[in-house]
Amino acid sequence: MAMQILATMKGQFQAKELLRRCRGFSQVADRETIAHEIESPIPKMPLFDYAPPPYDGPPAAEILQKRKQFLSPSMFYFYNNTPLNLVDGKMQYLYDDTGRRYLDAFGGIATVCCGHCHPDVVKAIVNQTNRLQHSTILYLNHAITDFAEALASKLPGDLKVVFFTNSGTEANELAMMMARLYTGCHDIISLRNAYHGNGAGTMGATAQSNWKFNIVQSGVHHALNPDPYRGVFGSDGKMYAKDVEELITYGTSGHVAGFFSESIQGVGGIVELAPGYLPAVYSSIKKAGGLCIADEVQCGFARTGSHFWGFESQGVVPDIVTMAKGIGNGIPLGAVVTTPEIAEVLTRRSYFNTFGGNPVCTAAGHAVLKVIEKENLQENAHVVGSYLKERLNSLKDKHETENSCKSRNTARDGPDERNGSVDWQRWNFWKCFPHYTSTLLFQGRCRFPCRCYGLHNVKDVKLPMKLKHLTLLDSCYATDLDV
Ligand SMILES: Cc1ncc(COP(=O)(O)O)c(C=O)c1O
Predict the structure, then answer these.
(1) Phi/psi-derived region of residue 435, left when phi > 0, alpha when psi is between -120 and 50, beta in every other case
(2) What pLDDT digit, counting tens, does each position of 116-138 carry?
(3) Which residues have C-beta atoms less than 6 Å from ligand 1?
(4) Atom of ligand 1 nearest to the CA of 262
(5) For residue 322, what is the enclosing H or E element?
(6) Which residues make beta-bridge pairs with 221?
(7) Model pTM?
(8) Which of 74, 102, 246, 335 is deepest in the core (most CB within 10 A)?
(9) Is 114 buried (19+), middle (13-18) or exposed (0-12) by CB count in 10 A?
């Protein structure tokens, strides 16, 4: 069915008229380049039936000035010259204080999965807020149990016990602690180029220097990244898995608490793990007495399109799954799901979290699950993502030829990647997208509200899964023009 829709759509989009219209979509994000825009044919965004109310808040300059005065200098923002003052959101679009519409190609960092301000999610939040905003899990309330039941039904095997947290970092901290308690071991193996959060333990599991402060981070060993594109063993998942075996043999007592990995590295630049990697590693970890933990903070909740959870693409069942971001479509919410046996370890002391399981957040989370199902967002992500992947691959072929780049290895090993004839920034972007649906190449000339760069020069773009075929395909054509 999905492929049929795709074929029909492709046919439609080959029509010259439509292509011309699609070409109009490409626009600049920075106002500095507006002059150039005026010289080009005026681009048009696809029609959209929503007009935000007029903005009556303070001007962007005032907000920026207050931000500099009262907020931590560590809080960076995009578009340094003219930071965006985003004041409204509707489905896949964001609006600035002038009412200008932007296609949100970042989805609040892979968080807005149903679309901004989805009416069902908003309604669930408002209804619950009107009745009871907070009570803590020390009392009964059906919002938390209803959502826990619905969430558990989405997970395989014995993964049926849910702990709610407020963020992905908290969820991962809890998962690390449970693995250590359950196994009686301290050593955890995670992957180079991973991002698991910035708490005391999770910063240790995170393996990108720009997110690691110079503080004590103990008990985590970082294995070779099974990056099929840049990794030392190409896409040979079993060879990378051997590195984990060696870490266990040479870097630990032979027993470990667990193995932590994203199923697709998000912050690291949308890197899929080499095929066959997780089954091989999970087997070594189990032999060493450890637990396998899947961090689904970015790639869970149907974002990959092919599966609801990222780990399913490698055919494994983890012992602990952590989640956040897309779980709440923007509401602060995270969760750890594990088996009843592992969950039991937390009864050794009291584990409590004031806001974890808050009724407003869990009501929102439940609404998100319902929207994903009701609106077939997983299928939508699959259809749109597959088409996007195909288009990006065709761009790759085109630019490989034009730039005399013969293979991925040429790129990986090339001595003059950045200053040779290869336009590295443009040539290499395609690699970050396979299967990672709801992502979209963007260029400076596209009208997207983010400029986030992942690993090296990868353009790291994550759309709301709500994005409809037409608008995404429009964007693909637009980006074609820009490459
Ligand atoms: C894979 C992954 N795990 C954990 C986290 C941390 O989540 P949070 O920022 O909600 O603490 C992130 C955040 O980007 C993430 O991408």
Answers:
(1) left
(2) 999 999 999 999 999 999 999 99
(3) 109, 167-169, 172, 195-197, 262, 266-267, 295, 297-298, 324
(4) 1
(5) strand 320-323
(6) 189
(7) 0.81
(8) 335
(9) buried
